[in-house]
Amino acid sequence: MFRFPSLDLIRVSAVVALACCLILGSLGLDGALRERTRADRSLEELHLFDLAAAAALSITAERRPLEFALDLDLNENVGAISELRGARINTDLRIEAFRSALGALADSEGMNFGFLQTVLRDERRRADALLILPLDKRLIGAQLSAARGMSTISDAFKPFVDKVSKRVILANENLAGRVNIARLLSTLYESAARLPTEVMPALRRGEMLPPEAGMTAMRLRQRILALWDVGLSQLEYEIASKPLQNSLEEIRATYFGRGFPYISYAIETFSRRPMRGSENARAIAQVYGPTIEPIAQMRDRYLQWMMVDAAQAQANATRQAQIFLGLTAASLFAAAIFALTGYRQILKPLLGFRDQILAACERKPFERVPYHGSVAAVRHLYRALETLEARDRERLALDRERTALSEKLRALSETDDLTHLPNRRGLFDQLSRFSLSDQDYVAILVDIDHFKAVNDTHGHGVGDEVLFTFAQCLKTRMGPDVLVARYGGEEFALAVRAQSPERLVHFAEMVRTEIENLHFATSEGILRLTASFGVAHERGPVSSWPTLLSLADKALYEAKAAGRNRVRLTNAAMQLAGKSGRSEVGAGDASAPAILMTAV
Question: Which of 270, 251, 244, 281 minimizes the C-alpha distance to 69?
Fold first, then answer.
């Protein structure tokens, strides 16, 4: 009877269980987190929408005290003007609260607050200019225009509400219907508050309602009825809250049962004949004004209900995310226990790779044993061992490259950029090798005469060219027994391995003569150079190159003090020249006018 291998069964079961836990947990947790994010954003955008709607209602609410003030003379409208100022302050505060909320979100694209403030300021100024006039000087057309100015402000604010509404719908498309209902209630309130605006100026004067104002009032009435017909069905279907149902009934009874019929009758009556205006206007304002307030209250309660519902959705999403996180953690823990049990049962075949991995880590030679089994975990470990070897080879190659780069950087640090000769640091590094020999050594310092005048006269570009050519001239002397370096500025150093003073004197004079024959073409003619030489000699291994170079520097100073373009030797070099029979080498010998000896 065939039996499925137990180890393979454990491996397959563990992998499947772990994968299922991960996939299901990830999907559930991702969905819960997405829902939480959507709920957070929905609540945030609803708060912004509530601020925008409150600002819109405040703008609309300014119309009523303005109409009261327009109906009174200067000595009567103190209270009405005070109420108007309070309404304006409330509007400004609501707009600023909305603007601050947008600023906190750093997103006010497409919302021109500057334009809104301009419209608000201009319309208020126009109304104030009319209010300071006596009552008999306020023309009907001017009063109607001032009252309609509030509608202009409301129209200017509508794009703000539109933008915020789109933000709410983008955050949660399920809120589209509710946002539309809230906007419908705001529009219904704005239209209801606007309706008396068209008839009040004529009523105050006891005149018959103008045809144009009558047509506008009729259109507003039709719009109010249309909004109510559309919104009523949606509200009755959407609302399940008892307070909201009561608010809906209050609108039906108060506004559409009393306020709307009352002002409709007044409009129809005044369209046919004039009546005594002031008393009728005040009566209409007193009766009709309070009936529109339930609409604003309904709008506020509906928005509050939307925000409470969004907060509940946020709490539910958080709780759901916590549940999914707990279930995922529990599932993973169980799967880990299951996988650990299977791992223990297949551990022994893997121990053979332990010594190989340790040897690879310590870079010791080892014989890698191939794996031909079918256990995926062991096969992956074998591939990891191959990868470890490859990475180790890469590290060795990187170490070699790093060493080469370090040598290159060291060479660059010891080389002069302009002349490509060793600098002082490179000079002493190479001089350390000369001290291991028993030969005689000579240190020569060479300084270009009057080099500062070259820079001052011809510029540093020509000076650099002179230094480069001068260095190339010295560089031709480099060899196994001669080392050339730029010692600093226009001063160069030569370390020469010499066996006789004749060769020493001949070498220095030959270099001096070759430099004297150099010439450079400049814009001001041919430039010729000379150089002064200071030579210091020490017999036997050089124990201190700085000391020898210091002696050469003193000899160089003496050569420059003696008139430049000459070679000055130290005591040791002078003694060697005397022993070799070269008595013709002297300051007064015409056969060698450029070579001088001095006691340094």
Answer: 281
1 in any annotated domain: no
**Which residues, including other chains, have CB under 8 Å from residue 518's CB and lie 6 or more apart?**
469, 470, 473, 528, 529
In sequence order, what DSSP letters do the residues of 220-271 get, joined into one string?
HHHHHHHHHHHHHHHHHHH---HHHHHHHHHIIIIIIIIIHHHHHHHHHHHH
The answer to whether the CB of 48 falls within 8 A of the CB of 101 is yes
- Give yes or no for a contact between 169 and 246, defined as CB atoms under 8 angstroms apart: no
Does pLDDT of 292 surpass 90? no
Indicate the helix (H) or strand (E) that contains 536.
strand 531-538
**φ, ψ of residue 198 in degrees (nearest 5):** -75, -20
In the numeric block, which tokens belong to residue 309? 């519902």
Shared-domain flag, residues 366 and 515: no
Domain match, 505 and 368 both: no
Picking from 129-133, 190-194, 302-306, 516-520, which range would have the lowest pLDDT averaged per residue?
Answer: 129-133
pTM above 0.85, yes or no: no
Q: Which amino acid is at 84?
A: L
φ, ψ (nearest 5 deg) of residue 199 = -110, -20
Residue 410, H or E segment: helix 376-413
In the chain, the amino acid numbered 509 is E
Answer for the pair 429, 477: CB distance below 8 angstroms, yes or no: no
CA distance 154 to 58: 10
Of 32, 504, 188, give the one whose Cα is nearest residue 180.
Answer: 188
Pairs from 155-162 (Cβ < 8 Å, separation ≥ 24)? 156/115, 156/116, 156/119, 156/120, 157/55, 157/56, 157/59, 157/116, 158/56, 159/110, 159/111, 160/52, 160/55, 160/98, 160/111, 160/116, 161/49, 161/52, 161/53, 161/56, 161/186
* Whole-number pLDDT of residue 339: 61
Give the whole-angstrom CA distance, residue 191 versus residue 187: 6
Domain hosting 293: range is 181-309
Closest CA to 484 of 441, 427, 557, 533: 427
Q: Are residues 453 and 546 in the same domain?
A: yes
> Radius of gyration of the chain from Cα atoms?
51
